[in-house]
## 1
Amino acid sequence: MPVLDSHVFDITRAIQLAVAPVFLLTAIGTLINALMGRLGRAVDRRRKLEDLLRAFEGETRESMDRELAVLAERIKLVLWAMASAVLSALLVCVLIGTAFLGAFVALDLSRPVAVLFVMAIGALTLCLLAFLREVFLATMADRARFVA
């Protein structure tokens, strides 16, 4: 009976340790949802501009070309941010699986779990930096449109 109690304790501990990464997964999912919205708006704006582009010449067309270039950069940044967020979420999932595996097989997997956590946070940091840059570009592009 003591072996069973020990095993149940290990599994219970693994579940407790998995709670924080699950909250992290929720936050990452929310971030991906926000990024999807921004991507959709940028793609829609790009399509609209591309349709209108043929009807304009001169300075107006040059302005539209500049906006298309900014939109292309924004779309690229959102895609990088989403890829980083998904990578972070995948690493968190592997981290949770590794923690449970360690509890079931009674192995010390604390080092791999720590490495996975650092990698997940690193990917999340890259996501947030790309997101911040995209927001900055969007803000500056809107400001330039209103000033012109």
## 2
Amino acid sequence: MNHTDHNDICSELIAAARRCSENGMQSGNGGNFSARIPGTEEMYVKARDTAFSEVSVRSVVRTDFDGNLLEGVLRPSKESLLHGVIYRTCPDIHAIMHCHSPYATAWASTGMPLPFSTYHSRLKLKSTVPVFDTKSYIVPESFFPQILSLFKEEPETTAFLLRGHGLVAVGKTVREALFRAELIEETAQIAILERLLTAIPGNKPIDFL
């Protein structure tokens, strides 16, 4: 990969991160993102202790799929192992966005798969967005097989939720992963509001399945 390609990927990741911050999907220095480096078993990933709002080329580091630092001076995200194992197992996935977005995280507290709240979400998300309760801030390696089996059994999987931890969206491009993350947050917000409104006597939910 040449220097121009490196800059292109980093620029896409930085722009996506800042958009998530501006949209209120990630505050503080939490969350993470990555992008596969085509033709390699390497990725660019957010460094630790870096806010989405302040991400720069310096805070996007290059690692292998085991999270070993190959280029950069900052330590890679603690979730690098999860990102790497997804890339290694799912060759069609080239980008991952993980945000602690409020509505998706709130919905994940129910433990129930995220419903298709709109026709748009049914069309774009395609498959169920399940919830994993890892009981940990970092997804333990013991949960990797469950997550990977999701992608194996449901090839159209676009995302999953982590109870008490947020959303994880994947895509063939950074742009696609970003848009899916945004759609999941919007879908969760609508699902929550719908349930509040349908609790009013006489109101009935719409079934989009």
## 3
Amino acid sequence: MRVIKRIVWTVVILLLLLAGAVWAGLAYIAPERELGFQLENEKIDVKEKALHMVKRMKPELVLTESEVNDLIRLGMERQMGDHIRIEGADFQLAKDRLIGDINVMYRERIPAGVKVEYEVDWKEPNLVLYPAVLSIKAIDLPLHYLETITIPLDLPSGEAFSVEEVRMEEGRLMVLFDIKLPF
């Protein structure tokens, strides 16, 4: 009888330890803040901003971090693999990378906060984001869950001017133009 009590208590303690470990694991990967896909701007009209730039005769177009965020959210796929859905995202512009917090839901049950980093490249006429880092807290994940994101900027083009350089700075994206005057 004594042996059976010890076995039962051992099993109960092991189950409690297992439940505690599962709870701690879920709390560890849970998102730190709630994110959504709400857009900060009603409509992002990059072409209008570029035409305004031409009127000012200043060969640069500046997109703020919130405008870049909105453009990325519009271009993002909501599904990452078969069982992972993106619930929300927020991105920050760093010197040479785009860093993001993404909230995902695994199998409609387990929420997680994911950190991503993208390398940014200009492939006319689009801004292309290549996955560089994917992690949950300190746990690195394989990059195959992320897809390359293409953001069409819809910049006016022609013989009069072309995009010379796209540069990221803290909090903004700069598009520098080369203006060719006809005289």
